[in-house]
Amino acid sequence: MFENLSVFQTASAMARHAGQSQAVISQNVANADTPGYVGKQMPPFAMMYAPDNAAGTQRATREGHLHGSAATQSMAPVDMRGGDNPNDNTISLENELLKAAQAKSHHDRALAIYKSALDVLRVAGRTK
Fold first, then answer.
1. Checking phi first, is residue 50 left (phi over 0); if not, alpha (psi -120 to 50) or beta?
2. Residue 90: is it exposed, middle or buried by C-beta count within 10 angstroms (0-12/13-18/19+)?
3. CB atoms within 10 A of CB 73
4. Cβ–Cβ contacts within 10 Å for residue 92, how many?
5. How does pLDDT run across 59-103, given as a tens digit for each residue?
6. Residue 49: pLDDT above 70?
7. Packing angle of the helix pair 93-126, 6-30 (nearest 10 deg)
8. Best exposed site among 11, 45, 79, 108 by fewest CB in 10 Å?
9. CA torsion, points 110, 114, 120, 125, in degrees to nearest 10?
10. How far is 122 from 23, CA to CA, in rounded Å?
């Protein structure tokens, strides 16, 4: 019954995404003074779970599924374009600090979801 709980997989994916976001943000901050550096950012986590179109097509969660597409579920950073600053790159330290705070908040939320689901399982296990 409890072998495959998607809430734990989702919380783990959320925490992993937040960690990758922090890594990309720290790389951007480290290169804030590098002339011509093009910053990167992670796509929002919600994009991984958004339907392919407004009709609400199914999403494949593994390759064996018949319908849906698992190919759109990538967590690779994308280039940031635009923005002018004295170093002729795309990094704004203020924006990066805000993104870092958001990533921390997302990571904390993922851990809270995981802990809450674990507490529910413990209570359910005691009531058997």
1. beta
2. buried
3. 13
4. 17
5. 566 666 555 554 444 566 776 655 556 667 778 888 999 999 999
6. no
7. 160
8. 79
9. 170
10. 33
